[in-house]
Amino acid sequence: MSREQDRATRYQEGSLTLPGTVMLGTGVMIGAGIFALTGQMAQMTGALFPLAFLAAALIASFSAYSYIKISNTWPSAGGIGMYLHKAYGNRLPTAFNALLMYFSMVIAQSFLARTFGSYTMQLFGGDESGRMVPALGVALIIAAFLINLLGNRMVQGVASVIGVLKIGGILIFGLVGVWVADRVSVEVSSPGEAGTMGSFLGATALGILAFKGFTTITNSGSEVKDPKRNVGRAIVISIAVCVVIYTLVGFAVASNLSLAEIIQTQDYSLAAAARPALGEYAVWFTIALAMMATAGGILASIFAVSRMLAMLTEMKLVPHRHFGMPGSIQKHTLVYTVVLGIILTAFFDLSRIAALGIVFYLIMDIAIHWGVLRYLRKDIKANVWVPTVAILLDLLALGGFVWVKLNTDPFVIGVAVVTMIVIAVAEQIFLTKSGEAAGSDHEESHKHHH
Known about the structure:
By secondary structure, the protein is mainly α. α2 (18-45) runs parallel beside α10. It starts with a helix and ends with a helix. Helix content is 81%, strand content 0%. The longest helix has 46 residues, at 269-314. The chain has 16 helices and no strands. It has one domain (14-442): Amino acid/polyamine transporter I (Up-down Bundle). Pfam families: AA_permease_2. One of its GO terms (molecular function) is transmembrane transporter activity. It comes from Marinobacter halophilus. Its main location: membrane.
């Protein structure tokens, strides 16, 4: 019991209100999704990309069911790590999938950081050298790290202010963009080489990245006031808000830029869409919005990710080294998370970061639903058909995405596969060793008792 108390005291129960939780969720969701993914999705599936956002929302809604059911039964600040543990115990599937989730969240931070850099450089006419975008991204991650060191209330306060400004601003952008567009008809053109259905599923998988922020809400489970009611509500509200905003913005972009222009400006397509519609001031407005949105997203994301790694460390599922650092485990996991994010931001471009993130996330998501079907169904009183449909939809999207990437950028699929093999092997070695150590400790204490 002392272990449970020890874990509970670190987290401030009831410190997040329902609106605060929704802001954290939408903060992560709207940060990456709308600013950087619009152009990439258009590149994959042509002008059907606003529909790909809707398809992604549908998949996210089916996915959310398992998370809501588990977090209603066991609210926890460890979120996904704890869910996997409930399903698979102290075994490799728990550690492997939790680390996939961890990496997909770190990848999301790098994605946000690069997006921040891409938009910011539009104020200076772009980044010819290619060095400024990663440099700005790295600076943003360091700033978010410093704010995170100041604690919960600060994070929630800053994230809420940014959230309100951002959602208001993006709604204005979407409404005005559609209003002034000379053609709200969306031109349909031929998708990429991978075939229509594969391309649409691939774009849908990318769209899921724009909704996966709802898992941030489950990670702050035990810190939400009245979590059994509010975690589920916050998830549903966040997804609904995002559907409205993404659809609006998708149509605003599609009606102000030709498909070729959307693809050409894929890293900053919202700023580009503002230019013909509303002139240079609108571009500045959009860039300011993007900078706020990505900054808020990183802030909330670092907060959630370091939590999860701390939880895995406490569960003895991942090795932990202090490297001589003072402070709690959570402070250390914050440092690891930031260092990893900086490395990714410095060396990977946007579309590759997104590709890694989506592969890791979908595999982890399938593991959660399988855990519900196989082990937790009775405990959490879940229907069979919802997680089953969620698994099938995930597999469809993942299959489409991998197919498109094998045709266009096989390197990134190779990196994903190698990374997963390394994680699995390293975890298996660690779990075997720590199992043997625990066994020998047990024998020692047994001898002493005799």
